Amino acid sequence: MATAGISLCMIVKNESEFIEQAVLSAKPFVQEIVVVDTGSTDQTPVLAENLGAKVFRKEWNDNFSEMRNYSIEMATKPYILVMDADEMLVEGNAEALQRLCENIEENPGSAGIITIINETMSGDTSSTTVVRIFPRDERYRYTGKIHEQLTFLGKPIQLTVHSQIQVNHLGYSALQMTKKNKYERNLVLLMSELSEHSDPSYIQFQIGRTFYVMKDYVQAEHYLNKCIETELQSSRRNFLSAALLTMGYCCIHMRKFNDLSDYYQLAIDLYPNYTDLYFMYGVGLIESRNIHAFKEIPDVFNKCTEMGEASSIKYETVKGVGSFKAHYNLALFYELTGQLEKAVHHYQLSSRDGYAQAKERLQRLLH
What is the pTM of this model? Predict the structure, then answer.
């Protein structure tokens, strides 16, 4: 059953590896598929057309928003669902989409958010929510050359409607990032955007994060610090929590453990229910190899297990920080301090959630 009146809108380039599974995953829930190809040299447009997509070709101009807005203009249905070619709709149903559209219609200026599950560079799974469903209405437009943001009448979306829809994002695994040189491309566009942006802190956040995944922690610290300073003095938008978390990990990599402690205190005052902050601080305590900090380690990871996973509606969060990853770190601590009974207990709890590393260490301990 297709949900009445939804156009899937995608912009693509050389995505023959992913395009079919992306379109097929969303096809049962939409009535139209609009694909804007920005210069593929592979089979991407052919594969999309074979699946019933309307394919339009538009020359790439280093501006994601212009491409997004063009794809929306080519759509004919009352509602838009935006997906990338390296994403796959894994959870949702036509009825839920229908209800979501009705909710948006009842709240002018609102838009629907979906949950994106990311494969991270380190092999973890993180989840976050993004605005992806909105009316086909010229008052809704994307802005920004990169990390484009949906706006209503030129202002960021204020009212969001949560949905049960989940999408797997496959494109930021280490292999994909290397293959497509996305970092370098992203940085060029972000720097260009920064130079002409009247509200720079979101761009500084994205630049800081890009440098962080490139392992240039000095530059990451510089841009994240600018973002954090601005946001603390202004509206404290939702990306501040992720900026503080990334800054904490920067401090760990740069071995700035006094700074880590300061950022951690600031962050948990603002976001006391963000489990990832406590987990990050626990990792910092381990990495500091400071004998005086060592006794704090079990308290921090026990706090993580008590709190459980952070809300992916509120925060960008890594799966396991409130469960198997925290139990694993507790088990390691107890193993290293000779408290083997406690170590076995926490390895078992971590293994129960399917954490392979915990299973391996548990078998080694028991045998």
Answer: 0.88
